[in-house]
Fold this protein.
Amino acid sequence: MNWYLEGGNNQDVVKSLRIRFLRNLSEFKFNLVKKEEIEKLENKIKDNLYQIGYGLKFLKLADMDDITKMSLVEKNLISPEFVSKRAKTGSILINDEENICIMIGGKEHLCLQVFSSEMDFENTLNLAIEVDEKIGDILGYAVNKKYGYLTSTLNDVGTGLKASVMLHLPALSKTQNIRKILEAVDEFGMNIRGNYGENVSKQGDIYQISNKQTLGITEKEIIKNLQVIIKQIIEQERQARKLLTKNPLEIEDLIYRSYGLLTNARKISYEECKELLSNIKLGVDLGIIDELTDKKVKELCLYTKPANLQKYLGIQCDAIEQDIKRVEAIHKIIEK
């Protein structure tokens, strides 16, 4: 099973954890633009792929169809910016489990990412460091004794580490406490983004929290600081959920209305589906809905997204047809 369909600790609130390292190779200049320069970088990596290991496979974006590229974006394995700017020259290293994905030839030479479905900071960081150090030993990173790992922008110099946690915070939104939480997170020097790194959007109640500082601080300190903030947010979300259940009729009505719409609609847009699934996920976590397992909710959240919907059903269709086919996918997942 791929990591994004697995359960884990704190799965009522935590959707995923990502540890990312930005790295440049010492023998290449920064900000590679020319096709031949990027190909030289790719050849260097391909020549050492077996030695790097971890079951990583080399894939070029130019060899992928648009649906495949967008399915990877929807899984948060690659960024929308990487696809839009490097569609013809970019490439990735990825394993079958998809918990390791390295973007090649983007803003930096390498964007190394390790993912987990749970808040397992220690093991996820250890794996990321292990992969990072092995690649560094083989390929040779651009590093400075004083400043650490060198990047094209000052924001990422130092450790080059960004740790981010994706959180589902419906109760804080419904009790209108989310703004206070996000303001507090910002004051503690953390970034707040939406599902795909965009500005915060309420749709789906998904928020991505990550560190800002990379220079003058160790990797373990970055992780520790983020961990403290995330634990506090999780506690606040759970308290807000308890508050919602003090009026059981209202929350149960909202959740079952959402479940009824999802299961009885004849067509449904992705935007509406996100909102309904957010309520249904809350209902499963609160024990209000027992018709669905958490795994099925994860599958619904993934396979109702436009590109992964088409992958799941093995079809290609426009947005209007997707609204109809989305219902088919929903029923297929629920009834299996």
Notes: The beta strands are 14-23, 57-60, 91-94, 100-104, 110-116, 143-144, 148-149, 161-168, 190-193, 206-211.
